[in-house]
Amino acid sequence: MLDCQDQDDARSLLGLTYQLAATRLTKLGETDLAWIAADRGLSAVRPVGDPAITGSLFRSVSHALLSTGRYQEAVRLTTDAADFLDQYLTDAGPELLSVYGTLLLGGSVAAARANDASTARTLLTAADEAATRLGKDANHLWTAFGPRNVAIHRVATAGELGNIQVAIELGPRVAGVQLVKPSGRGASV
């Protein structure tokens, strides 16, 4: 029989497995299945209360919404998830900061695609604050998050918003930099 810690560990691993499935399913274009996987992952980790894994699953749902063109829903989920995670940020470790920042970056792209420049800037600023706290580029919980990823997303969102001059001005700051790339991750975001 499993003790409480073993049960929590098993639930956390199950949640991460569902998160991986949701990520892969989204890349395969199976966004409905990705949504189901992320939802089941959230149900698995809810009793554990691990904000980093919970945030990672929220990130997967937001990305699935973004991938299907449901930009406003992705922004809404991002802001709701960020509001939920805010309570854990005071003493956040690198995993939670990375998950939180990556969630915000995805939301900034969704906001830009929804033509909501103000929200895109707000989310980028919050992601930049998380990257500053993290202090370096890293790959906690498969996020490839840090200051460089924020800089890349600033260029991307400027382009999405049609601010080509801004994207051109920001581009040299990220051109040619060595990027942290998680193994098994393709070129698409």
TrEMBL record:
<protein>
    <recommendedName>
        <fullName>Transcriptional regulator</fullName>
    </recommendedName>
</protein>
